[in-house]
Amino acid sequence: MLRSLTLVFFFSLTFASQALAQPASPPAAPPKLGPYLYETKPDDPAFASFNPRRAPQPGELLLRKGDRLAICGDSITEQKMYSRLIETYLTVCVPELQITARQYGWSGEKTDGFLRRMEKDCLTFSPTIATLAYGMNDSRYRPFDVTNGQWYEDHYTAIVRKFKANDVRVVVGSPGCAGKIATWVKSRSGTLEQHNLNLCALRDIAIGVAQAEQVRFADIFWPMLQAQVFAPAQHDATEEKPYRVAGSDGIHPGWAGQVIMAWTMLRSLGLDGDLGTIEIDTDKNTATANGGHSIDSYADGVATVTSTRYPFCARGTLHSENSIRSGMTLVPFNEDLNRFLLKVNAATGTKWEITWGNQTQTYTAEELAQGIHLAWEFPENPFSESFDRVDAAVAKKQAYETLQVKKNFHGPEGRKDFDAAVKETEAVRKPLADAIADAMQPVTHQIAIRQVAGE
């Protein structure tokens, strides 16, 4: 008995000594904290309650040649306005990428709705890249609560992961802002500010989804809210003629607000906005061009140019909520996405008349040396007619895509035989898509420069 106790004691000491001899485990690394960054807020009381998370910046070009773009969202997407701006831009401004697109807007939809239908409605057509714009209906038109925020995060994440599992690159878009209480929603509650604070919180959640899944993010809410606050004064709004960025019903933007949506989506795709430059040197009597534009001839101050790339053209008043041209003043659309420039080297202190199409404008030599945005300075220009043809073809195709999905795929034909419904409707859609490509033709135009007499 004593021997047994002695052995137990001996082995206990041995194991204890060995344990003490082992090197101590390194201390656990402290958890990574931060950074905790916020957007810069304008100095205006309208933003006092808002503390939005800083959005990630757009990265390098996400698009690849031949991409098939799926534009997904709720009724704001089904308006076929920002989706049309995006598709028309990609067709005419970056034709070398040969991007095709489909829009999948569905009125009243939340993230769970698209998650249920994306397999058949969208993935059937093998998209390679997708933009998402969800959150307005997911907010449920009430103040923010954590449980609903988690619901939104879970469903948005599930959509992104399903796209990624099918090798689709993704842009996660935030909701926009609200301009009025959605009176048609019976379950609505809270004030307009509480609703926008909810949308801001969902925006921040969408940033988290994009970062966790390592995909792109498009911030619709924050630039739209700022425009909603400042645009009325910027555009001389009155009670009789208001300027409502979020639209007449406060939820569905008109053309001006839709430009903001298209701008942030296009930027998130990594587009650099360089659409070419035409340069004229009055001393050397030469003209050069790049970026899809070539000089056919230059003589007597007149450059004849052939262009296979168009600038984004927008007519209309500068002071209307339903004007694309007006919307381009709410964000740096031209600077970021529409830089089709004319630069002229001329003697300092001189003034020059520039004639493009049927319009003539006068500029100083200093302004011309910096470069002028041709499509902005000349809203009616030699590209306008061709641009309109492409845009009209895009509008016609996207209108059919809504019918194709909602009436055919989810109607009696689709429920009876989905594959047959796809085959039948694709036969109708194909000539509509072909019409877009057919409308995109080179444009030959002339730019004339003449020094103003006495200058």
From TrEMBL:
Molecular function GO terms recorded: phosphatidylcholine lysophospholipase activity
Write the record's keywords in alphabetical order, separated by commas.
Signal
Q: What is this protein called?
A: SGNH hydrolase-type esterase domain-containing protein
Superkingdom is: Bacteria
Pfam families with a match to the protein in the record: Lipase_GDSL_2
Keyword check for Signal, yes or no.
Answer: yes
Q: Does the keyword Flavoprotein apply?
A: no
Extract the signal peptide range.
1-21
For the SGNH hydrolase-type esterase domain, which residue ranges apply? 73-258
